[in-house]
Amino acid sequence: MIIQKKYFIEKKMILLTGEYDGYGKLCARVMAGGASFLVDRSPLQLLDDTLTYIGFDLRGAMASAKLILGERSRCPIIVNPYLGICLFPNKSPHKADCIWFNPDHIVRTIAMGLKTEVELSNGHSIIVDSRLTYMNNKIHRANQLLQIAMKRGNQPGPIHFYLEPPKRHNLTKEKTGKYNFSTLEENQK
Questions:
Q1: Quick one: pLDDT at residue 171?
Q2: pLDDT (mean) for 144-170
Q3: What is the pLDDT of residues 61-77, one digit of tens each?
Q4: What is the C-alpha to C-alpha distance for residues 155 and 12, in angstroms, rounded to an integer?
Q5: 52-66 burial, b if ≥16 CB within 10 A, otherwise e?
Q6: Which value, in Å, is the radius of gyration of the alpha carbons in the chain?
Q7: Where are the domains of the chain?
Q8: Which residues contact 43 (CB under 8 A, 6 or more apart)?
Q9: Residues 7, 13, 15, CA angle at the centre, nearest 5°?
Q10: Are 63 and 75 in contact (CB under 8 A)?
Q11: Cα–Cα–Cα angle for 153, 154, 160, rounded to 5 degrees
Q12: What local confidence, expressed as pLDDT, does residue 69 receive?
C-alpha cells in the first residue's frame, strides 16, 4: 500500500477520516473523486496543513466557526475560503473514526433507523452512526457558515464608511504626557 506524504484538501475531496496504517500510526483516509488513498498525517494534521499552506490555521478556523455559528462543539470549518471549501465532522474531531464531509459532494441523505446513508457525488454511499436530522442539520450549518463567511469577506464593513469621508482630527500630546484620545470617544456618542 502506498501512503502519500503530503496532500492539500481540494474541491474534489469528498470526505476524510482516520485510519491506522500497518504500524499503528493514525493516518488520514481521503476519498477524492473516484480515488481513495492514505496520507501520512492524521485528519486534524491534514486539515491544519491545508489551512497553514494558505496562511491560516486549524485553531483559528475552529474558533471562527464557533463564533460565527454560536455553537460550542463539532462545528464545520472553512478549510479554504478561496475555493469555498467547508467541511463538517460527523462526531468529535478528536476521535480517530470521525468523518469530515464536504457538503458539496453529498447528493442525498436517507434515514436508516438511528443511522443515515449518505449518497456521495462519486456514486458511492456510506452509512454513518447519526440520525438523519442530525446529518441534515450538519450539512445545513456547513453551508450556512460558508455563506456567512463569504458575505462578510466580500463586504467586510458598513457601506456608509466608504461614502462618508472620515472626519480628521489630530491626536496631540497633552501636558500630562498622554494623547487626547478622549476627543475620539466624544465623537462616537
A1: 74
A2: 70
A3: 999 999 999 877 889 99
A4: 28
A5: eeeebebeebbebbe
A6: 22
A7: 3-160
A8: 16, 17, 18, 26, 28, 93, 98, 100
A9: 105
A10: no
A11: 105
A12: 92
